[in-house]
Design brief:
Elements lengths: L9 H5 L5 E12 L5 E11 L4 E10 H16 L24 H19 L2 H4 L2 H6 L7
Antiparallel strand pairs: 1-2, 2-3
Helix pairs in contact: 2-3
């Protein structure tokens, strides 16, 4: 059946993709009462169909991001070599001494941001169970 306004079939209209842009930013850090640093990640989701912008945020400690990095890296390396055109992002090494120093925190913040932006460009990573479990409030965003 053709749509009267465009002349296209309704099946081709229903197959049109709604573009969704996801942008991750690590915007803040703070020292938790337990003595570790936590990182605030903000996800900004923009849907092209309605220009709707949604912002969601989450605080996590660095060790949790290290575990996510490992899980996403395993998924990425399970792809056929031809699909792995870009090197998986390195992650800053854990530091016991100096972990509260500003350069170490900044390096970690950048590593987290790089990981999440990289994952957002690869559908299998973006929609993986690992990322969904890590950010349960963002599952349908």
């Amino acid at each position: 059946m053709a749509d009267r306004t465009t002349g296209r079939s309704s099946s081709s209209i229903s197959q049109q993709q709604i573009l969704v842009h996801r942008n991750f930013n690590v915007v803040e850090t703070k020292r938790a009462p337990q003595g570790h640093t936590v990182y605030k990640v903000v996800l900004t989701v923009t849907q092209s169909s309605s220009d709707t912008v949604t912002e969601l945020s989450l605080w996590q400690r660095y060790s949790t991001f290290v575990a996510l990095h490992k899980q996403l890296e395993e998924i990425y390396h399970s792809f056929e070599p031809a699909r792995r055109r870009v090197k998986f992002p390195e992650f800053p090494k854990a530091h016991f001494f100096g972990r509260f120093d500003e350069p170490v925190i900044d390096e970690r913040r950048q590593g987290i941001a790089n990981l999440l932006q990289f994952a957002s460009t690869i559908p299998e990573l973006l929609h993986s169970k690992s990322l969904a479990a890590f950010f349960p409030v963002w599952r349908d965003k």
